[in-house]
């Protein structure tokens, strides 16, 4: 694993790099709308067409995708049964090489794919580029991880017996991907399953099928057999059918808590003919709080909170939505944040000057606006009406049971709460049903230790923004209702995709050890 | 640039050694440095023990955020405990370790404040005037730098601009001769809109405030110098400064300048840009270029490493020093179109620029040396004593605002490759003057 290095980010602070990015965007725009058919085994399949649009300019259709039905899901799983046999029998090194080649293909399309994420998911350039880089990271990291796992684990050996434990693929894996990291999370979930020898059926987010298709194309071109990786764009129908089918062994999901709980319920309902227990790997969002102690450096806190709460419009599982601020600095910080929020430029994702892009679709826009309208803001940034825009909004002093404090909003909304102490803040965090990410600004080593031990969150970030987990550096995932716990991009993740086989051979023949 | 290495005149090394030896002789010897014993011992300890050094910096950094003495002691205790546990992990014992508590405890509270005051001339312009006029009377010019918190809102940017204006007027009221008032300003404090991927936003945001300050400076006959900051903001700072100074209303004043950072790998190309602009933009007061090594080296290296970029700075100290000398020569050659300020505490860099200027017949009208107040006081005195023009960079601000500045200067001062550290530890002058 020690040869892994994160893919370098584009140095967008240099004008020449920005020019190259804009050129890639123009080239992409000339090709829109893209056609995104289903890929079922060897077949390219067409169906009822639905569009993904540019959230910054909803009249622009980015892709026409072909919606899968339950029958398409059944066909894909039938193909995957063949794919499972052949793919799982390939040597781990061959599978890893295919993933690594796919990473190389993504690398060669670096600007083009970032441009696609800008258009289809409304991701600002730096975020879109991070998405491509993270997709590459996942492919390389899991390729190397699967190689390391292939040797199995050492066991105690006795005279006359030979003991071995190795890992084998669990079986056909259904992946249901989100739109907010349309390249990276799709690539991560799919490649973890593929690296460990599982055939995969990917159901991408309805809002970003073209991004997911680019990942699938790269994997096929890299050497993953068509039967081992099918691609089914669409809405609820293919997702539900995929989860319910008795031939599916593993379901990997990133998305909302409600959808995740539904998947868990369906997956745990035994279907006649089913011969195994399904496993669900779910990452289901959060309600992430940043604690600001009295000894924090507010010069760091203000930009840290702005980035955590408002970058990409707060549409990251890891984004900050609560700030729990020590009473000694609460007034000063509130004033500085209120002044700072009006410096955020709300605008199209493709504009390098944009701080806060639109949210993903009209449903999200209306849902978030509902939260904003439910209380009086302390301060609010600009908005505009030529896309799915929402004004970045700051609340202060809402009652603890207010829905803005309790529910996941997944938009550019941050609420400030004043606390008596760090202990008090930890109690508030502990009352939450979510436990994904958290932050702490403090310059006291003992306070940092205290919060580290006390917090239930899966990822705690100290004296920095709480978003931007890097593969291999910040393995990502939370507990409680935030998910089933495995850390994506960490050393344990692949274990979720395998079963262990232990073989013990008697090596004594005719009383002799042979 | 190919030109950086081929042009060194063969006869420069001797005058460099002569000038440097003369300057060194005029500086107090390390053993006689008139700092308090506690501070002396502390500096020694810090250079020997990185864990202690980290603990002290963390303590100095948090000092203004501590509301009570108990809070202060708690932080100090925590930092010390951490430093000791790390030190204890080392295979060999550090003899300085048992001594650590005393000097560190001694700087608590008032100690940090006293240290800060060594670098900061006053809380505001009025408070700083006695110190500044004292320097003026001693033949040392000054440039004032207003320290402050990071600017995160338009209101904070307005506050900084007003402080700058008040400072310009207060200094002008006290000035005894033309050209004495000199203020260094930070574009990042004049706008909350600096964005590394969108320089135009910072330019638009800072433009009205910098324009206003240029008008005030022109009115009171002051020099306005635009400081350089991290690489992320260089494009915006450069474009804004050159664009404003190209406006007809500023052609006949005020005197103004910018900074060139020699640690940047592409600084020769940046100098091309600055010189080309100066050539085509005639000004009553020549454009001043202050050559510095650069103060954000750690930031640049860390940021580049975390993002997988090639660092924009030289990572080899000698390469950086050679570049500093090459840029010095190009700048001196560009006089009198530009006026040159060599801002360095490095004895070799100073001596090199002086020797080259002498060889080219460039004098005090076109060349000055700049040092940081509190850090280069001995160097300043020595340069002034040799009749060369010297200017002290004088930070003004309260204790809270001064901490980031103080930490950065302390880090520089005790860094392994620091000239001052080498000088304080008694490195031989001839060695300090060797060509990089």
UniProtKB/TrEMBL annotation, chain A:
GO cellular component, one term: cytoplasmic side of plasma membrane
Catalytic activities: L-glutamate 5-semialdehyde + NAD(+) + H2O = L-glutamate + NADH + 2 H(+)
Pathway noted in the entry: Amino-acid degradation; L-proline degradation into L-glutamate; L-glutamate from L-proline: step 2/2
Biological process (GO), any one: L-proline catabolic process to L-glutamate
Domain Aldehyde dehydrogenase, first and last residues per copy: 50-503
Domain of life according to the entry: Bacteria
Xref: InterPro entries: Ald_DH/histidinol_DH, Ald_DH_C, Ald_DH_CS_CYS, Ald_DH_CS_GLU, Ald_DH_N, Aldehyde_DH_dom, Proline_metab_enzyme
Keywords: NAD, Oxidoreductase
Residues at the catalytic site: 283
GO MF annotation, one: proline dehydrogenase activity
Top EC group: oxidoreductase
Enzyme Commission number: 1.2.1.88
Family, per entry: Belongs to the aldehyde dehydrogenase family.
Protein name, as recorded: L-glutamate gamma-semialdehyde dehydrogenase
Classification of source organism: Bacteria, Bacillati, Actinomycetota, Thermoleophilia, Solirubrobacterales
């Amino acid at each position: 694993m020690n040869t892994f290095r994160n893919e370098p980010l584009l140095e967008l602070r240099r004008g020449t790099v920005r020019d190259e990015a804009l050129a890639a965007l123009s080239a992409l725009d000339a090709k829109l709308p893209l056609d995104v058919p289903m890929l079922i085994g060897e077949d390219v399949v067409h169906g009822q067409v639905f569009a993904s649009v540019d959230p910054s300019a909803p009249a622009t259709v980015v892709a026409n995708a072909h919606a899968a039905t339950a029958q398409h899901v059944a066909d894909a799983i039938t193909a995957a049964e063949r794919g499972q046999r052949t793919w799982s029998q390939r040597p781990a090194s061959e599978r890893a090489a295919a993933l690594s080649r796919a990473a190389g293909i993504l690398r060669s399309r670096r600007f083009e794919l970032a441009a696609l994420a800008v258009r289809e998911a409304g991701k600002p350039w730096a975020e879109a580029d991070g998405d491509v880089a993270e997709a590459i990271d996942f492919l390389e990291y899991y390729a190397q991880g699967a190689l390391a796992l292939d040797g199995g684990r050492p066991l105690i050996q006795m005279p006359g017996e030979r003991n071995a434990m190795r890992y084998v693929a669990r079986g056909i894996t259904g992946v249901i991907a989100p739109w907010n990291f349309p390249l990276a999370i799709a690539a991560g979930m799919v490649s973890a399953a593929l690296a460990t020898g599982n055939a995969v059926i990917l159901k991408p987010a309805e809002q970003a099928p073209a991004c997911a298709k680019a990942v699938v194309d790269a994997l096929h071109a890299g050497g993953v057999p068509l039967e081992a990786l099918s691609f089914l764009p669409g809405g609820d129908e293919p997702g539900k059918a995929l989860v319910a089918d008795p031939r599916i062994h593993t379901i990997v999901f990133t998305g909302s808590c409600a959808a995740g709980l539904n998947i868990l319920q369906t997956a745990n309902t035994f279907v006649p003919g089913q011969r195994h227990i399904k496993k669900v790997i779910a990452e289901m969002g959060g309600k992430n709080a940043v604690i600001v102690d009295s000894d924090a450096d507010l010069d760091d806190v203000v930009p840290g909170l702005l980035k955590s709460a408002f970058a990409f419009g707060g549409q990251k599982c890891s984004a900050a939505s609560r700030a729990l601020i020590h009473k000694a600095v609460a007034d000063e910080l509130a004033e500085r944040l209120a002044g700072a929020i009006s410096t955020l430029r709300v605008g199209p994702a493709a504009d390098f000057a944009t701080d806060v892009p639109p949210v993903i679709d009209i449903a999200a826009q209306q849902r978030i606006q509902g939260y904003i309208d439910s209380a009086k803001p302390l301060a609010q940034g600009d908005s505009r009406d030529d896309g799915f825009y929402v004004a970045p909004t700051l609340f202060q002093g809402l009652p603890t049971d207010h829905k803005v404090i309790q529910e996941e909003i997944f938009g550019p909304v941050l609420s400030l709460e004043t606390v008596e102490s760090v202990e008090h803040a930890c109690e508030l965090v502990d009352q939450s049903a979510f436990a994904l990410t958290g932050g702490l600004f403090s310059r006291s080593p003992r306070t940092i230790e205290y919060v580290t031990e006390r917090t239930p969150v899966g990822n705690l970030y100290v004296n920095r923004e709480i978003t931007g987990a890097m593969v291999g550096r910040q393995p990502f995932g939370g507990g409680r209702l935030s998910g089933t716990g495995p850390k994506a991009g960490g050393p344990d993740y692949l274990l979720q995709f395998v079963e262990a086989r232990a073989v013990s051979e008697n090596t004594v023949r005719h009383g002799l050890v042979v | 640039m190919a030109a950086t290495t081929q042009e060194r005149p063969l006869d420069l090394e001797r005058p460099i050694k002569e000038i440097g030896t003369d300057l060194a002789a005029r500086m107090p010897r390390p053993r006689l440095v008139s700092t308090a014993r506690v501070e002396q011992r502390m500096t020694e300890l810090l250079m020997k023990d990185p864990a202690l050094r980290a603990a002290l910096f963390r303590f100095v950094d948090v000092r203004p955020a501590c509301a009570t003495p108990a809070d202060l002691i708690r932080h100090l205790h925590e930092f010390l405990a951490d430093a000791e546990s790390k030190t204890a992990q080392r295979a060999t014992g550090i003899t300085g370790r048992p001594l650590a508590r005393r000097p560190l405890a001694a700087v608590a509270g008032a100690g940090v404040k006293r240290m800060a005051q060594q670098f900061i001339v006053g809380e505001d312009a009025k408070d700083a005037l006695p110190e500044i006029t004292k320097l003026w009377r001693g033949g040392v010019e000054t440039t004032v730098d207003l320290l402050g918190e990071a600017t995160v809102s338009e209101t904070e940017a307005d506050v900084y601009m007003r402080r700058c204006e008040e400072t310009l007027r207060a200094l002008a009221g006290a000035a005894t001769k033309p050209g004495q008032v000199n203020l260094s300003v930070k574009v990042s404090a004049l706008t909350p809109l600096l964005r590394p991927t969108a320089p135009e936003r910072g330019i638009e945001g800072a433009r009205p405030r910098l324009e206003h300050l240029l008008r005030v400076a022109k009115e009171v006959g002051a020099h306005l110098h635009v400081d350089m900051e991290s690489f992320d903001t260089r494009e915006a700072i450069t474009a804004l400064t050159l664009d404003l100074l190209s406006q007809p209303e500023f052609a006949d004043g005020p005197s103004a300048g910018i900074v060139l950072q020699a640690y940047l790998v592409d600084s020769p190309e940046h100098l091309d840009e600055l010189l080309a602009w100066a050539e085509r933009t005639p000004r009553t007061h020549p454009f001043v270029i202050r050559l510095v090594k650069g103060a954000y080296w750690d930031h640049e290296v860390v940021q580049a490493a975390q993002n997988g970029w090639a660092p924009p700075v030289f990572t080899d100290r000698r390469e950086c020093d050679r570049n500093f000398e090459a840029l010095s020569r190009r700048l001196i050659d560009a006089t009198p179109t530009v006026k040159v300020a060599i801002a360095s505490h490095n004895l070799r860099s100073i001596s090199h620029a002086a020797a080259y200027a002498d060889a080219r017949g460039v004098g005090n009208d076109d060349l000055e040396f700049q040092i940081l107040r509190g850090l280069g006081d001995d160097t300043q005195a020595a340069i002034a004593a040799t009749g060369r023009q010297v200017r002290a960079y004088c930070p003004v601000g309260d204790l809270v605002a001064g901490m980031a500045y103080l930490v950065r200067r302390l880090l520089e001062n005790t860094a392994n490759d620091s000239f001052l550290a080498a000088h304080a530890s008694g490195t031989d002058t001839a060695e300090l003057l060797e060509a990089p």
